[in-house]
């Protein structure tokens, strides 16, 4: 049997396996089965904790989308893994290592966690796009969505500013943007409208998953895009997602701070029919 913990960040949910003692090798189809909301444990992303490679880190976090593919970053999951390490070590500051670098996490107010998600990458080659472009207005129009801002937060995002984010048919438009040929690695898609000064409403179609309740890296990309476009004053905003609110600050040094909750849901075990040898 293979134990797991179910966690979430504002409803963006994760199955977390601990492979720090014993390596766990998972195929794409195994992850798809374990992430399935009917035949598996159900999750948006599948997280495996591995021994840190860098001695400055407390743990290595490997991230797979529900479609089984490995991705570079997951803000909400980073807060959850940081929470596990804080509870385990008693430290209020921990370092989560990922394929794109070391992420520093700090205990914040009322059980929230603040993570430095690292620098926003803004060059067309960093998004990446298939051709050189102005990432402040990328040439990708789908239905009512046009001229998104490209931001890479370890993973790629196309941020569309619209009059009313609630009115956008994201199920119709999201997949077409996600798989548009201009984005060779595919892309996460955000639709954003300003509700009041310092607050942005954001809905997300996630690469490899679909619509999720929240997206930490998407919220980071949203505030970076809003600052670059002059949509907000200052460099800090609350991003209101379907599942709740994240506070994001884009520092003058280019790094992005994300603050929000990290919630445990339950523990379980996968039957050996799902993970042979378990
Ligand atoms: N939910 C995650 C983002 C996952 C991004 C993933 N869908 C990708 O393909 O990059 C977050 O909180 O940042």
Automatic annotation (TrEMBL):
Catalytic activity field: (2S,6S)-2,6-diaminopimelate = meso-2,6-diaminopimelate
Lineage per the UniProt record: Bacteria, Pseudomonadati, Pseudomonadota, Alphaproteobacteria, Rhodospirillales
Pathway in which the depicted protein is active: Amino-acid biosynthesis; L-lysine biosynthesis via DAP pathway; DL-2,6-diaminopimelate from LL-2,6-diaminopimelate: step 1/1
Name recorded for this polypeptide: Diaminopimelate epimerase
Record's function text: Catalyzes the stereoinversion of LL-2,6-diaminopimelate (L,L-DAP) to meso-diaminopimelate (meso-DAP), a precursor of L-lysine and an essential component of the bacterial peptidoglycan.
Enzyme class label: isomerase
Active site feature: 74 (proton donor), 74, 215 (proton acceptor)
Compartmental location: Cytoplasm
EC nos: 5.1.1.7
The protein's assembly and partners: Homodimer.
Gene Ontology cellular component annotations, sorted alphabetically: cytosol
Top-level taxon: Bacteria
Positions of the record's site feature: Could be important to modulate the pK values of the two catalytic cysteine residues: 157, 206
Bilayer-spanning residue ranges: none
Family: Belongs to the diaminopimelate epimerase family.
Gene that encodes it: dapF
Single GO biological process annotation from the record: lysine biosynthetic process via diaminopimelate
Pfam families listed in its UniProt record: DAP_epimerase (PF01678)
An example molecular function term from Gene Ontology annotations: diaminopimelate epimerase activity
InterPro entries membership: DAP_epimerase_AS, DAP_epimerase_DapF
Keywords, in A-Z order: Amino-acid biosynthesis, Cytoplasm, Isomerase, Lysine biosynthesis
Binding-site list for substrate: 12, 45, 65, 75-76, 155, 188, 206-207, 216-217
